[in-house]
Design goal:
Aspartate Aminotransferase, domain 1; 2 domains; about 40% helix; 4-stranded antiparallel beta sheet
């Protein structure tokens, strides 16, 4: 993974992945929510997911408010096995909603707890994964496939809506505000950076102390599989580090002032470099 060495290079990477509307003003974006849209129903009694939103909040990627305050996780194998019918019903509804609000095909994945969305190419899947995770909804990418969470305990007006809204929001910005030439630029950047660092199923117990020693950032008690929470000085610091990491091919997100990074040894060096760089420039 190429280290970030200058503010110019970092700015170039951040701007490269942001939709055009944010490229010259993303530092001015405020993490303020527009409020939640209510559900609408069609003649068939089902939620008309494609008729709910007239506009969307700013992307969390650009510094806007995450769609969720805490991370929405996929169901475990045990939860699914305990309620298979409910799981199938919820997964089907999420797939229906995704297909109504995007041009993408969505199916129930063979991997328990996940919906599989077929994107046009790995660039689209990778960009949507980065953007959706920053909205605090679990997402993964494998090739041209985007994976979104599902669970038998999901409620239509809550968790199901969270998945569909975050997907509708990010797809809107990708499809309507990121032009073909920029998408090719993003593809070239992703290819140069190599594999995206994503959280794994289990956390590495040695990472918190290593990051504390290298950066002074204090680990938090949050318990999300594969994620490590780090307390930042303020919201601005958390947003800056989140964007810098995502622009460096590392999934990251935030909950208020807490920055979340993959609990993986590979995150230590780039996070340490970014943190030291920001401190030296009085960014943090």
């Amino acid at each position: 993974m190429e280290a970030v060495t200058t503010i110019e290079l970092l700015e170039q990477r951040i701007k490269a992945i942001l939709p055009e509307r944010y490229q010259d003003c993303y530092e001015e974006v405020q993490p303020v929510s527009m409020g939640s849209a209510g559900l609408k129903y069609g003649p068939d009694g089902k939620v008309a997911w494609n008729e709910i939103w007239g506009s969307f909040c700013d992307l969390a990627m650009a510094g806007g408010p995450p769609h969720k305050g805490t991370l929405l996780l996929p169901a475990t194998q045990a939860e699914i096995e305990a309620h298979p019918n409910e799981y199938a019903e919820i997964a089907t509804e999420i797939c229906r909603g995704i297909q109504l609000v995007t041009t993408l095909k969505a199916t129930l994945s063979q991997q328990p707890g996940w919906i599989e969305v077929t994107c046009a190419d790995p660039t689209e899947a990778g960009w949507l994964t980065r953007a959706i995770v920053m909205e605090n909804v679990s997402a993964r990418t494998e090739g041209a496939n985007l994976f979104l969470p599902a669970g038998p305990h999901y409620r239509i007006a809550k968790e199901v809506k969270n998945v569909i809204t975050s997907t509708a929001k990010t797809f809107h910005y990708w499809d309507q505000h990121t032009w073909p030439a920029q998408q090719r630029e993003i593809a070239a950047l992703f290819e140069k950076q190599g594999e995206l660092l994503q959280p794994q199923a289990e956390s590495n117990p040695n990472i918190p102390d290593a990051i504390r020693a290298a950066t002074g950032l204090e680990p938090t008690a949050h318990n999300y599989p594969g994620w490590l929470g780090l307390e930042c000085a303020d919201v601005h610091s958390a947003i800056w580090l989140m964007r810098a990491l995502v622009a460096s091919a590392i999934l990251a997100r935030r909950e208020q002032t807490v920055l979340f990074v993959p609990s993986d040894e590979a995150v230590i060096e780039p996070l340490t470099a970014l943190h030291a760089f920001a401190k030296s420039r009085n960014i943090l």
